[in-house]
Design brief:
This protein is an alpha/beta fold and 211 residues long. Helices cover 47% and strands 9% of the residues. Strands 1-2-3-4 form a four-stranded parallel beta sheet. Helix 3 packs antiparallel against helix 7 and helix 4 packs across helix 7. The chain is globular. The N terminus is likely disordered. Bound molecules: iron/sulfur cluster. Iron/sulfur cluster (SF4) binds next to helix 6.
Length: 211
């Protein structure tokens, strides 16, 4: 039999109030030793919000941490791609959980599975509909090389049609391998000269103006 005191809540309240009182009371003597602060002398907002960096570095940082994948799931590798988005592996840690099924909202195509000739031109067309800048991950042996399907029906690697940035080996690769590939892509993006590559004329004019 368990006996529960009907006044237990009141007891806890009294103990907590007593603790709060003691802490406040003990802090009083030290208040006089603390320096006076003036509201205009220090603006923490400015200190925290001003960052000096290169434009390329800032742009790349934003891009690499907000990749929106186009899940081009064509065969069994797509199951591992789906697992990477689930809670156990959680691709959201890399800011890449926003899988989009509209090519106009994506910037990284993940080709996961066997690319047959029947699908190959559709993959190319979807890639072409994605806006720049865009990247491609070939996930698994089939997407990278045709895998075990050395047959008349299978494209021997998606890089025969579109440029691939990262290849992931395995049949199928584990979700961790996809995350590792994603990190490789992030490394690659952080080293790109994004502004110069996309706006070469403007970059030249700026350099001339700056001497
Ligand atoms: S690499 Fe293996 S798991 Fe992936 S699509 Fe090809 S056969 Fe399936």
């Amino acid at each position: 039999m368990v006996l529960v005191c009907p006044f237990r809540n009141l007891c806890f309240l009294r103990v907590n109030l007593w603790l709060i009182f003691c802490c406040r009371h003990r802090a009083q003597p030290y208040r006089s030793l603390m320096p006076e602060t003036h509201s205009t002398a220090y603006d923490s907002k400015i200190e925290g919000n001003v960052i000096f960096t290169r434009f390329d570095a800032a742009l790349n940082w934003v891009r690499k941490n907000s990749l929106w994948p186009m899940p081009m799931g064509l065969a069994c590798c797509a199951i591992e791609l789906m697992a990477a988005a689930a809670s156990r592996f959680d691709i959201a840690r890399f800011g890449a959980e926003v899988m989009r099924f509209s090519p106009r909202q994506c910037d990284v195509m993940i080709v996961a599975g066997t690319v047959t000739y029947k699908m190959a031109l559709a993959v190319k067309r979807i890639y072409e509909q994605m806006p720049e800048p865009k990247w491609v991950i070939a996930m698994g042996a089939c997407a990278s090389t045709g895998g075990m399907y050395r047959s008349y029906a299978t494209l021997q690697g998606i890089d025969q049609l579109i440029p691939v940035d990262v290849y992931i080996s395995g049949c199928p690769p584990r979700p961790e391998a996809l995350l590792a590939g994603l990190m490789k892509l992030q490394e690659k993006i952080s080293g790109e000269r994004s502004f110069r590559n996309q706006k070469p004329e403007l970059a030249e004019k700026l350099e001339e103006a700056l001497g």
